[in-house]
Amino acid sequence: MEVKKFITKKINQITKTVGKQTPLVACSGGVDSMVCTILAHQALDKKLQAIFIDDGLMREGEPVIVTQMLRKFGVETKLIRAQGRFFKALRGKIDPEEKRKAFRETFYRLLGEVIKIKKAKFLIQGTIKADIIETKGKIKTQHNVLEQIGIDPQKYGFDLIEPLKDLFKPEVRQLARALGLPKEIYQRMPFPGPGLATRIVGEVTLPRVKIIRKATKIVEKELEKFKPFQAFAVLLADKATGIRDGKRDLGNIVIIRCVDSSNAMTAKVSEIPLKVLQKIQEKITKIPSVVRVCYDLTPKPPATIEYI
Ligand code: XMP
After folding, report:
1. pLDDT at 134
2. Is the Cβ atom of 257 under 6 angstroms away from ligand 1?
3. Which of 48, 66, 79, 90 could disulfide-link to 204, CB 3.0 to 4.6 Å?
């Protein structure tokens, strides 16, 4: 890919498609949506309305980190706090696809409402090729794939612009670099749209999200130096017996997942020294209710990277 040519082409396309209409971009802070937001900003400048939806399923501190980062690039982002809506939609759901659909519906309905208020017509979003292939291949419905599986975005009241839909992650990272985004962004581990919900087996509730958010922070911090494609924690639905203060404690099981990959279509398990894993275990079992920590040895396939 000729990066500079690609950027110019996309900026021209976005400008032409949007015309006199108002466009909205929803940035989640991942490399795909950051690149998408910066491209759209370069094409449309002040005309672009940028929002960040806090769905309550993000990593710690994310809303502030992302909105501040975008400000450095001249993008003013409106923060929409909507965690209550997402938790309500996910309440009682345990089936992975049902959870994904509940997330998607809530996400796009909310965007539809914002678009109506802002009198916008277009939603610009950073869907990439792997999202589309996996969803069309019926592995799982990635939250941001609509038209490609027959969902008309007009159902939610907008048209879609997806400038990155023909690219895989390594190309998006190249673009991010060329656009001047900092290393923390272009080297950032992918974080799925439905966020921590993809790392919770069973029901997504606020107390369960709090556990996995803490565990995620520990895993990311300790494994970052190995430069994996992704490293995160997962909360299982089952409980296991442990010992706390000399007494039996039936508690939570947390999985450490760490994989190497280039485009997320396949992945192999990272070979992390046992000592490092043990250190992570010690930290995670300090989280109240967690009694057991395991390392996932499964490549993709047969497993997927996320757990739902
Ligand atoms: P899986 O779990 O299918 O994940 O092996 C492949 C890659 O896609 C990310 N992922 C998502 N990204 N919306 C996203 O934006 C989603 O719904 C979604 N589901 C999975 C995952 O983190 C991995 O990088």
Report:
1. 87
2. no
3. 90
Does this model's pTM top 0.70? My answer is: yes
- CA nearest to 59, candidates 296, 229, 219: 219
Looking at residue 6, its pLDDT comes to 97
Neighbouring residues of 64: CB distance < 8 A, sequence distance ≥ 6:
none
Atom number in ligand 1 closest to CA 306: 2
Name the residue among 261, 25, 23 with its Cα closest to residue 127: 25
pLDDT in tens, 150-204: 899 999 999 999 999 999 999 999 999 999 999 989 999 999 999 999 999 999 9
Closest CA to 297 of 262, 270, 263: 270
By alpha-carbon position, which residue is closest to atom 4 of ligand 1? 305
Alpha helices in the chain (DSSP H): 3-18, 31-44, 62-72, 83-90, 96-117, 129-136, 169-178, 183-186, 206-223, 274-284
Token reading at 70: 């975008």
Distance CA(106)–CA(100), nearest Å, equals 10
- DSSP 8-class letter at 238: E
d(CA 179, CA 7): 8
Identify the residue whose C-alpha is closest to ligand 1 atom 6. 264
